[in-house]
Design a protein that fits this description.
The complex is a heterodimer. By secondary structure, chain A is an all-alpha fold. Chain A contains 29 helices and six strands. Chain A is elongated and about 110 Å long. By secondary structure, chain B is α+β, with helices and mostly antiparallel strands. Chain B is globular, with a radius of gyration of 29 Å. The chains are: A mainly alpha, B alpha+beta.
Chain lengths: 691, 407
Amino acid sequence: MKHKNLSFILQTLFLCVGLLLPQLCQGQDSSAPQVNETSKSAPPAEKQAATTQRTPWSEEIVSEVSHWPLQHGGRVKPFQTYAGFLMLKINSKRSLKLEDEKIGPVEWALDFMFYPEIARSYRCIHVPNDEVLIGVGFDTTDFRRSDRYSFDQLQPVLSALYSSARDIQMAKPESKEWTLVERQTVQLTNKIRELEILLHSMDSSRHQLPLHGIKEFDEVFGESSPPGYSTFIEQIDKVETLASPDYLNSLSQDRRSEFINAFTELRSDLLRNLEISELGISWFPPEEVSTDEESPPVTWETSSSVVQAALLFKEYKQRGAALKSLESLVGHLDDRDQFLIQSTLFGSQLEGLAEIHGSGSQLSREVSFYNVDYFTKALVFFMLAFIAISLGWLIPKSKFPTKITWVLNGTALGLLVTGVTIRCIIQGRPPVTTLYETILFITGCCVITALVLEYFDRKRIALTIAAFLGALGCFLSNRYELKEAVTAGDTMPSLVAVLDTNFWLSTHVTTVTLGYAAGLLAAAIAHVWIIGKLIGFKPNDKGFYKSLTRMVYGTICFGLFFSIVGTILGGIWANYSWGRFWGWDPKENGALMICLAELIILHLRMGGYIKDHGVHVLSLLNGMIIAFSWWGVNLLGVGLHSYGFTDGVFLLLLSFWGLESLLMIVSIGFGNRSGTKNQSTGGTGANPTGS
Amino acid sequence: MKNTHSTFWDSKAIKTFGSLGLAASMMSFLLLLTLLGTLEQMNMGIYQVQKKYFESLFVTECFGYPIFLPGGMLCMVIFTLNLMVGGILRLRLNKNNIGVFIIHVGIALMMSAGLVKLMAGQEGYLRLLEGDKSSEYVSHHEWEIAVFEDVPGEIKEYTLHERHWRHSDAKDTPEALVMSGNADLPFDLHLDFMHDNCMPEEIEPGNSSMDSTYVLDGWTLSARPMDAENERNLPGLRIWTSPMGSNDAQEISEVSFLYGGQYLPWTFQAEGKDYAVALRKVRHSMPFSIELDNFEKVDYPGISMAKEFRSDVTQASNGTSRKVRIEMNDPLRDQGLILFQSSWGPPNAKPGDTLYSVFAVVHNPSDHWPLYSCIIIGIGMALTFTQKFVAYGRRQSKRRKESPDEA
């Protein structure tokens, strides 16, 4: 019983901390802190270091800091990922142009942590609709409708903004009932709340606890001590001794009063700062390792918890050392060599702690994944491939552009597949778990299928479509990443309990998604047939159009196989998971509609009810149904599968359906003549593969 | 004989019935119904949508507009028969269509699984607090009336399923509505169904607008609009007793309302005994009992999102018991019943509060049929499309050889 001689003063201190613990624990969900409380309890400005000169961050520091592990959104991730998605969420892009420098997410986050006074003036808070700010009394005269604001600029209306968001959430608990402005108000509030966490994350490291003023404190902590918690927790044993009843009783009446006042001031200040720190970043893995197989997942903690562990005499030494390294960074802003050393030390201390829980092994891989930026590079290569093959169509006799396109498409596909594979390794899951991942997977499958078709067909049609769909898919994934950043804060989020099964994710989800991919590819090829007929492209080349029909038919067969098997597998999953094979849930219905549409096409074709023209028009309809199943049902806001937040996608989807409907009508109306002319190319109908 | 057989299967009617055109038409109707049924879920609960679009013979209204479409049930029956006739019985088997034949067999099996589930399946839920034990589960949607003598200990219940009284009244079908002639019950019981969803309402004296409704002791049951979530709809009916064998439903001994939301059953006396009548969700008994030993909800670290739910239960039957863990994606299957981890509560529970676990309980004689059909369909499709793909590849190679410039 090392600490049995605790004095009543220290007991009071601990008791107060103890009483506060439940209150602190309520704020453990760092993703949704109560910012009003943060704002209220933020340390006075005069207590913060007034750093007004910013030195750019070196590449070495950025690289080191990128690897710092932390826990956020239910998983362990590198600081770079956290900063990247936070910046994307707040700024709508992963870069910010300063006067003389363009900074990335890690530099941006470091500025908010270590140069808060400067970073508060960064115009990095993107408000896509100024009505949100007008609604809370902000004068937007000097701003565009969609503009970026600094934290300082918004500071005067933050209180009104938070109240407005709270009123909206109380009045309409169901988010699907919110108007666009209401949704944007809540989103802006969430963005600023998360930014505040970053902004105040190093406040305690800059804050000087009242560890002086009485001679006892001076003897324990020295006449000057660095800011932060570290000095205090390093001397916790001596504080304990000081707080013993014997020592207190040995003091004179005057000294005792002075001594108690000093302790009371320390306690109040400490509690206030712990409360702020509790809302900060979860850097610190616990030091205790649970041996129970059924223990809950390991929860990483904030600096506040490290101090609380020290106060409660729990194991804290390793975390204390890491905290000291982190806090020392504030003092090394002008000595970047020391900053680098301490940041490296902090990272390795955290990684060491993570390792004892078997986590953090994918940190370097994740950092390198985002550094390589596979999907943007794939987009570039697909675009180059499309340009190359377009030139090829202009000079049909040259085979060089075709060969180049093969190489470029292959490179882009390689990047795409590598990126998807690395994501699987990092997450330890199959490739498709979120809407964002469906875009990548479907793009990859479309391109592979198109290249296989091209291998057999050699008419450059599928090669062109592969480049086009590859570029389109990578572009859409890039755009949708922003949406997932706003809603989930990550594109590798935690999965709801029922989805947390690799067997069904790798069978049902990938299979049904492959079905989507094939159906969309068929629709894309059908566009070439329909538009070609409408504009009179190659009017005398029957082989060209025949090839297209064969490809569409074959791709629909391929898609139907995966759609039917995938849909039934989904039913089997549902049957084995919650007891019903089919529940008429919108997503299930969407999958059924795809199967039905493709079966209808094949049956009508086999029965001779439709010819080539009909196959292509119905393939377009099938593409529209796939878009409905893939994205549309999520907009309905009902059912088990409404996991994707697709606000804003509606207009895009509506435009797609509108254009496709128009094309179908025009094709049926005007193209019927050319379609009739080409009936001879349709074979007997009973054998559409043209044998 | 052979000729007769051939004539029958080659007759125009059978050919039409098994035609690709009819198959495509039925699938087109199903496609349209599925689209409408999906969109209608923005306004209606899934249960009502299911009844309206997919378990119906005809659909006569959509989004408030009158339409006329064959219902999902009718389409599926015709589609299945068409598939049997055209895709299985009339198919002249050869090496090119063996895959198609297999696919059709698989689809027929899957449709049969759905039919068996619809006709013979039962489903409901079992909600247990930690420490609670039960050997019966409760239907999600179906109601019944239970009559029993109000005595302590084991009791004998008489139940009447809602299909006997919902949307009926005593005058129309007295036989179905009267629980009479039972030697154990010294009275006849009469039921008059009133509303699919209602609430008790106190009637102010002199309120003439209520003249057309039943008022008992100043109270009536007022109709309420149907809720999208069918579980929230509380039916109501009027119930009365008459002397046993009196053959006169108007000879009322005791009368009351029964309302789906009432907590206690209606009680009355007959021949000196206390009887109780309850309107409640249908209860099904299980061949074993389940006791919830422990329920655990594990969140992802640092956020309030559930990573997994699990219930440790004791399953007991015939004097033996065993410990079983039921968790997401890992149900308990025994004696024809399947218990799935469905949900938990109370939703606003704080750490340390006693939690309850909810299991979905399903009795489905065709439980594994979809898996078998999936395997059969997969084999059939793989065979068919591989044949087509190989043929396509051969033709393309031939074409390239014939016109090398295209390659």
